[in-house]
Amino acid sequence: MKAxxxxxxxxxxxxxxxxxxxxxxxxxxxxxxACGICGSDLHLIHGxxxxxxxxxxxxxxxxxxxxxxxxxxxxxxxxxxxxxxxGTSCGKCDFCKNHQENLxxxxxxxxxxxxxxxxxxxxxxxxxxxxxxxxxxxxxxAILADAVSTPYHAIKYAGxxxxxxxxxxxxxxxxGIHAIKIAKALEANQIYAFDIDEFALENAKKAGANHVxxxxxxxxxxxxxxxxxxxxxILDFTGNYEFIEPLLRLLYSGGKxxxxxxxxxxxxxxxxxxxxxxxxxxxGSYGSDSRALPELIQLYQENKLNLKxxxxxxxxxxxxxxxxxxxxKRINNPIRLVIAPNL
Length: 343
Ligand SMILES: [Zn+2]
Ligand SMILES: [Zn+2]
Fold this sequence. Notes:
Layout: E1 2-5, E2 14-17, E3 27-36, H1 39-45, E4 62-69, E5 81-84, E6 87-88, H2 94-97, E7 108-109, E8 121-125, E9 129-131, H3 138-158, E10 167-170, H4 176-185, E11 191-195, H5 198-207, E12 211-214, H6 218-225, E13 231-236, H7 244-248, E14 251-259, H8 272-277, E15 281-284, H9 292-301, E16 311-315, H10 320-328, E17 336-339
Parallel strand pairs: 10-11, 10-13, 11-12, 13-14, 14-15, 16-17
Antiparallel strand pairs: 1-2, 3-4, 3-8, 3-17, 4-5, 5-9, 6-7
Bound molecules: zinc ion (ZN) (2 copies).
């Protein structure tokens, strides 16, 4: 099969013909129809995120059709359309048994902790897939696995979001834009969005944000809007903690500031008293768990989640390096570029 491999210290993936084994007893073999390119794939080729082996096949946002099943597979059969979850976990611990796989001690990501889906086929445990209904195109199903499920988890489970609450989203890239769509699907009252990029703000508006602001003027904007609104939840996808302190002042008492974007920066907060007096929380949210995919598919089926305009282009595996470059340089402001390895 054709696969795109990442070799340590190599800035480009290399397309090779390699063999794939039969799936293990608890695994299925999926013919990959679509796999989205994520910002963390760029972190991989820049050496910021380290994979467990060398070389490795990246790609953690995939959908496809089951081609083979291991002998202990019970829930799926050959020909089933499926989405593959981006997260990997032990499958045995109490967290894994209670739909909290993202809290497992052995939590990892496909394409980092085991071979991913920038390949024509992938073997994956049946516990890591969900059925994809016929009416959901493969490319839209694929991005459910991370671009949509990560913000969904941050809002619904880490944020304990309730219908009618106000939410503020900072950073409207691949994940942030879907946070807006989800907030809308879950019937947020007001959705405010910040980004440094005017095109991203246009997308944010289209996705359903009620108010969008350029973060270049964030301090003035915060001064202005704190007279008119407060939020139950702030989601930070920027990985840039510069504005956390003024933003905290926009939270209701009991509000949550959730960090989803990764950063190496130090978090310095000079207002611990405010956090105590107002019972605020600052917490992180990582990935999602096995509740996300079925619940998102349900929202999609209820026509509450529209992902058509989230797909900025579908490309063959051979064009993967060009696509990484398009994402990196934000050429034509892509939301999600998708690779179709069997195109
Ligand atoms: Zn990702
Ligand atoms: Zn576990």
